[in-house]
TrEMBL record:
Keywords: DNA-binding, Transcription, Transcription regulation. Residues 126-264 form the SIS domain. Residues 1-77 form the HTH rpiR-type domain. This is DNA-binding transcriptional regulator, MurR/RpiR family, contains HTH and SIS domains. CDD domains: SIS_RpiR. GO terms for molecular function: carbohydrate derivative binding; DNA binding; DNA-binding transcription factor activity.
Length: 289
């Protein structure tokens, strides 16, 4: 299927006009299946006959059969997942839609890998721990704290209020205030933080329930946590463009935990949603009043 793209890139016997057409098609390949020949001619400052001549030169009997071949390439490139390096999911020479496709593939592949590593009994017990806790304290830094804040925002919808422990640099004070009726959730992909180690040691001594979500199956934090969800991704600690896979995995797990909590009181949560939405949109809390 990709043979047609290779033919368009192999321009040694193309005229300058044909090169201009081929370059435009390669750079805008996702638009070609729905483009009309007259529009392509205008966009490349060429003519119908020149485009048809190019199509025949690379083995097609006309623009229609050429478009069908391009459509097959676009479908396979956009809809069939491929292997993507989690640390370097795109290269300098990649086109815009190549990058978009790679990021989509990486996201899908990460979620599938994370799902395959989840244990139903463990997931349920972690959700129960969160459900039964009076307060939830979230321990996370950097990109992981963005995931924690998203989780915190969702929990408000079911009348559970989580505290970002690192906020305002008050992590030690927050840690000292937890009781066995609370729950601490740690997000640490590397799982190597000495600071988290000390906090978890304190919680373990005080018999405070803790949950660790990490990508390091050899983390020293695991033996200190009450429950641990390990989601290993093919992502390095430092040599990478961004924390794509690890954060997709964390987001997926937290969304799953929130959904399990929501489902436990599904009808009540829906009723409360309707009442609160009405109050916020049309009641005294409405910004329009």
């Amino acid at each position: 299927m990709l043979q047609i793209v290779n033919k368009l890139k192999d321009q040694h016997n193309f005229t300058n006009t044909e090169i201009r057409i081929a370059d435009y098609i390669i750079q805008n390949i996702t638009k070609i299946p729905t483009i009309y020949i007259e529009d392509l001619a205008k966009l490349t400052y060429t003519s119908h006959s020149t485009i048809i001549r190019l199509c025949k030169k690379i083995g097609y009997d006309g623009f229609r059969s050429f478009k069908l071949a391009i459509s097959s390439v676009v479908y396979s490139e956009l809809h069939l997942p491929g292997e993507v390096d989690a640390n370097f999911p795109f290269k300098q020479e990649d086109l815009t839609m190549d990058i978009a496709k790679n990021m989509a593939d990486l996201t899908i592949d990460t979620v599938k890998k994370t799902l395959a590593q989840l244990d139903e009994e463990l997931l349920q017990s972690v959700a129960e721990m969160l459900y039964n806790s009076e307060r939830i304290f979230l321990f996370s830094r950097g990109d992981s704290q963005v995931r924690a804040r998203s989780f915190q925002s969702k929990l408000i919808k079911i009348n559970k209020f989580a505290i970002i422990s690192e906020e305002y640099a008050d992590v030690a004070w927050n840690a000292s205030n937890l009781t066995p009726n609370d729950c601490a959730l740690f997000l640490s992909y590397g799982g190597t933080s000495p600071h988290n180690n000390r906090i978890l040691q304190h919680f373990s001594n005080e018999k405070i329930p803790t949950i660790l979500i990490t990508g390091n199956s050899n983390s020293d934090l695991i033996q200190l946590a009450t429950k641990t969800i390990v989601v290993v991704q093919e992502e390095y600690d430092f040599v990478k463009i961004g924390t794509f896979a690890s954060q997709v995995a964390f987001e997926y797990i937290l969304n799953t935990l929130y959904s399990i909590l929501y489902a436990k009181e599904y009808r009540d949560n829906l009723e409360n949603l309707k009442k609160k939405q009405l109050l916020i949109e049309k009641g005294i809390l409405s910004e329009e009043i």
